[in-house]
Amino acid sequence: MESLKEKTAKGLFWGALNNGVTQLLGALFGILLGRLLTPADYSMMAMIAVFSQIAAIVQSSGFTAALVNLKEPKDNDYNSVFWFNIFAGLMLYVILFFCAPLIANYYHTPELKWFCRYAFLGFLFANIGTAQGAWLQKNLRVKQQAKAGIIAVLLSSTIGVGMAWSGFSYWSLATQSIVYILTVALLRWHYSPWRPTMHIDFGPVKRMFPFSVKILGAGIVDAININVLNILLGRYFTKHDTGCYNQAYQWQSKCNYVVQGMVNSVAQPVLAQLNDDSGRQLNAMRKLVRFTAFISFPLLFGLSLVSREFIVIMITEKWLFSATLLRFLCISGAFYPIVWVFNNMIISKGRSSLNLLSTTLFGLCQIIIMIIVHRYGIFAMVLSYVALNIFWVFVLWFMVNRLTGYRLFSFLKDILPFLLAAAGVMAVTWFATEPITSLWQLLLSRVVLAIVLYYMVMRLARVKMLDECQQFLLAKLRKEK
Fold first, then answer.
1. DSSP of 126-186, one letter per residue?
2. What average pLDDT is seen over the chain?
3. Which of 135, 152, 198, 266 has a CB 3.0–4.6 Å from the CB of 184, allowing a cystine?
4. What is the tens place of the pLDDT at every residue in 294-352?
């Protein structure tokens, strides 16, 4: 039987494969969509992006975390969550269907009314695979989840690009989102052996509700937090500005989710299993923090380094404004996967209320700051957003420290070597390649040089994380042969 360490390593591998492939596919199709559509088209989706993200959160809702945290969840627990989510999703769609005219009036965009009602269909499909997804996560079936994610991205993106090519403009983006949600849900049914029954008993849901509702609430608040700039930009600025910001945020998120998805696939199940051994649990969390920093800082700082060349080459100069915004967003994006490690630790301790409090406080701070600085323009809003996100990492560290004894010195020791190494490598790469004038040559030289330099720094510093990753990959390749 596999040890928890081996399961964690496999989970990280398949999480990396899932998110790496899905984000690569998303990038390729994103390039095609960026060339076919305009900033105004993207702004339509950006204005209601918060609702699509809430649909995705409902799909993995707080009950997923509650089921994963149970020692031995029974069939009736899964069945109760399944039927509750079905009814909740239906009710949510009906409410938003009638709220669509209000959303259109808020943005002064009448065409949003029926676009909202179409895009919100994702709420109906998001819930049919929640219980199956919880079963897969509880049993660390990351490989199956990876397959579901890859297939869903490939199918939905192909349909989205085909519609954009045919002239359906922003409707193609909404369709892409709906198809992705539905495909993931159906594939979870395929890969999970658990099936619902018609015996509807909401007793287990009532028992899990005090814990899970806080997780779900924190997820919804977090989705609102992520989209605050979209919401305010859509009201106070032009469609072009809103679309450019949304494009920049999406590219930053693709890199961000590669790391975040790897860690999320194993963090909570592993940390929850170690709840009875606080010493091992703290060590496991610190290793996840180091692994996250090892990948996240060079990946996001690297995207910031090549933001202008990448945007202009891939989706043309009509998105040039996005490149400048992307450069700043990547800085805070490098820290965001660490936030999710901390959130998973807080949840694994059964403190879902603390997770909800943190997310809500962050949202309130962000809304207040954005309303104050929006009069100074988009750059002021983005810079404030970046600063607040970095500051909030330390707010969450403080909460984790109170729960686990994770000292500030230990935290800085875990992340600073990777942060400084990545920043130094990008600075050297910037100055070494600055004389190059060709955009293609500049992009390729910066990517290759940054990778080589970062690897050399990690090798010369004898970083244990690099050795462990290499050993696991080599063992995996030998096993495949």
1. HTTTHHHHHHHHHTT-HHHHHHHHHHHHHHHHHHHHHHHHTT-TTHHHHHHHHHHHHHHHH
2. 83
3. 152
4. 989 999 999 999 999 999 998 888 888 999 999 999 999 999 889 888 988 888 887 87
Quote the tokens at residue 151. 């297939």
Look-up of token digits 């997820």:
219
Q: What are phi and psi of 129, to 5 degrees?
A: -120, 15
Q: Exposure pattern of 229-249 as b/e (b: 16+ CB <10 Å)?
A: bbbbbbeebebebbbbbbbbb
Residue labelled with tokens 């309130």: 364
Burial class (CB in 10 A: 0-12, 13-18, 19+), 269: buried
156-215 pLDDT per residue, tens: 999 999 999 998 988 998 999 899 989 988 998 888 888 988 888 888 888 877 777 777
Task: Tell if the pTM clears 0.85, that is, is over it.
Answer: no
- The reported pLDDT for the residue numbered 127 is 79
What are the backbone angles phi and psi of residue 192, rounded to the nearest 5°? -100, 135
CA 318-320-324 angle, to 5 degrees, is: 155
Q: Report which of 472, 459, 422 is spatially closest to residue 9, judged by C-alpha positions.
A: 472
Residues 463, 294: contact at Cβ < 8 Å? yes
